[in-house]
Amino acid sequence: MELLKEKILNEGQAIGTNIVKVDKFLNHQMDIKLFNEMGKEFKNRFKDEKITKILTIEASGIGIACIASQYFDYVPVVFAKKTQGSNLDKEIYEAKVHSFTKNTDYVVKVSKNYLSKGDRVLIIDDFLANGCAALGLLDIISQAGAEAVGIGIVIEKGFQSGRNEILKRGVRLESLAIVEKIEENKIYFK
Ligand code: 5GP
């Protein structure tokens, strides 16, 4: 997606050789005009699929998923929670995820009330690195007996193993921008 790539080049920042910082329009401040275009593009890529729910993970995936939902007939957006507040249902699906940016493990949780057999689920997230977050969500979909229709990612880091891990599981992956490498503080796309 050209608009997104331009935005990454103009407003993003490379940190070392493997982190893309996009706080200015995606991970902290959010550019809603861009989000709208991304939502349309996700719909365009998955237009032939019947989707009943969008699943994402807090926090950065939520904004993108909500805007995208408007292009998928306003299907409900469910986000996996990283903490268990007292208002979370007792009956939950959970999966362990290793955080790439924080280098720790955490457990993501989804109430059994919001994902079930018969659901056709599109996962949407901001980044794909080694695929741990996406695999955790796939695990939860499988526990629910639902079907994973595909995964839509805003920025994939093509030099990490996420794509392979997802394709190995036979799930369709669509990324709006694929970073091929970061060299001397410059970001190169595939
Ligand atoms: P994965 O689970 O695929 O290894 O990593 C995906 C998660 O880690 C994303 O949801 C995102 O929060 C975070 N992440 C991974 N790489 C980057 C990066 O280069 N920049 C930012 N901002 N977040 C990243």
Set down the secondary structure blueprint.
Layout: H1 2-11, E1 13-15, E2 19-21, H2 23-27, H3 32-45, E3 53-57, H4 60-69, E4 77-80, E5 92-98, E6 105-111, E7 120-128, H5 132-143, E8 147-157, H6 162-168, E9 173-183, E10 186-189
Parallel strand pairs: 3-4, 3-7, 7-8, 8-9
Antiparallel strand pairs: 1-2, 5-6, 9-10
Give the tags:
190 residues; alpha/beta; six-stranded mixed β-sheet; 10 strands; 34% strand; globular
Report on the structure:
By secondary structure, the protein is an alpha/beta fold. It is 31% helix and 34% strand. It contains 6 helices and 10 strands, in the order αββααβαββββαβαββ. The strands form 3 sheets. A 6-stranded mixed sheet has the order 4-3-7-8-9-10, sandwiched between helices. Strands 1-2 form a two-stranded antiparallel sheet. Strands 5-6 form a two-stranded antiparallel sheet. The chain is globular. 37% of the residues are buried. The site of guanosine-5'-monophosphate has 20 residues, from β2, β7 and α5.
Task: Write out the strand line-up for the largest beta sheet, numbering strands in chain order.
Answer: 4-3-7-8-9-10
Mean pLDDT: 96
Indicate the overall shape.
globular
Bound ligands, named by name, code or SMILES: guanosine-5'-monophosphate
Q: Roughly what percent helix?
A: 25-40%
Strand content: 25-35%
- Largest beta-sheet details: 6 strands, mixed
Secondary-structure element order, N to C: HEEHHEHEEEEHEHEE
Low-confidence stretches: none
Number of strand segments: 10
Describe the structure concisely.
The chain has 190 residues and is an alpha/beta fold. The chain is 31% helix and 34% strand.
